[in-house]
C-alpha cells in the first residue's frame, strides 16, 4: 500500500506523539474524551508560554472519514501503516461496537504487535482491550474493560489478570503496567488520560486540566467502575431484589449474613449461593460496597467528620472505614473529602 503524503512526521524530541486508532463502529467518546485531555494539556501549557507537548494523530486503515457508533464521522489523518513509530509515542485503542471486527483484522493485530516493541506506551479504552487481547498483547498483564465485555475479555485472554472492579490499570511505577494498560468503559478513558498527563507533565498540570474540563480531579485507577446502588435488579431471585432495596436504608445496623438471610427468608448458605450467582460477590462484600458508596456521598458533601461518617455508614471505627477506602479506592477518607468534597 503506498504511503500517504500526509503521514505525520516525527515529533520534536521534547514532545510526545499520541496515536489514537480509528475503525468503523468506534465509540466517539472513547476517542474524543481522552484526546481532549491531551489537547487541553497543550492549552494549559500555552497559557504559561510553553510549547505544546502532545502531538495528536488519528489513524485508521486509510486516511479519511470513519463512521462512529453515534453516526458522526471522525477524520483519520493517515493510515496506521504510515505513522512513524518511535519511543516517544503512546498508542491508544478505543472501544466500540466495531471492536470485534477490528480484533479480527490480522494486519491490524500484526501492526500493533510491531508497535508494542517500538513505542513507550500501548493502551486501550473500554472494549479496545479486546483488540489488544486478540493480538496477544495482554498476556500476563493486569487488564480491565467495560463491565459488559468482562466475560468476553476473560475468554479471549485467559493469560491476563482480569480486574472487573477498577477504572484503569495504568501504573507509572510498575515496569509492565506503565507500558501496557487498559481502562474501563467510556469516561474511564478520561481518567486514564489524566493519569498519563500527570506522569508526563506533573500533578499541577493534570489538576489544571481536570479543572478546565470541570472535573474535581482524576479518579484513582483502583476505583470501582460503577456503584452497587445502580445494580440491584436480579433476573431469577425476587427475594434478593427486595433485599438489595432494603440494605441501603439499614447500613448503620449490624448486617451480618444471618441478618440478611432472615430478611430474605432464606438460609444463610442459600443466600450466599444466590449472591454469588446473581452478583458475582458475597453478601459481606456487597454490604461493604453499599456502605462505601454512602460514605463517599457524605464525605463529598463535607458536612460530617470521618468518625461520624464511619458510624453512620456502619463501619463503626474510622480505621475500618480507612481500610475499606484504601482497598477499593486507593485513597484515604480524608484525602477523598479534600479532593472531591464540595466547597
From TrEMBL:
SMART domains: HTH_ARAC. It comes from the Bacteria. Residues 241-339 form the HTH araC/xylS-type domain. CDD domains: GATase1_AraC_1 (cd03137). The keyword Signal does not apply. Pfam families: DJ-1_PfpI, HTH_18. One of its GO terms (molecular function) is sequence-specific DNA binding. Signal peptide: none annotated. Keywords: DNA-binding, Transcription, Transcription regulation. This is AraC family transcriptional regulator. It comes from Comamonas terrigena.
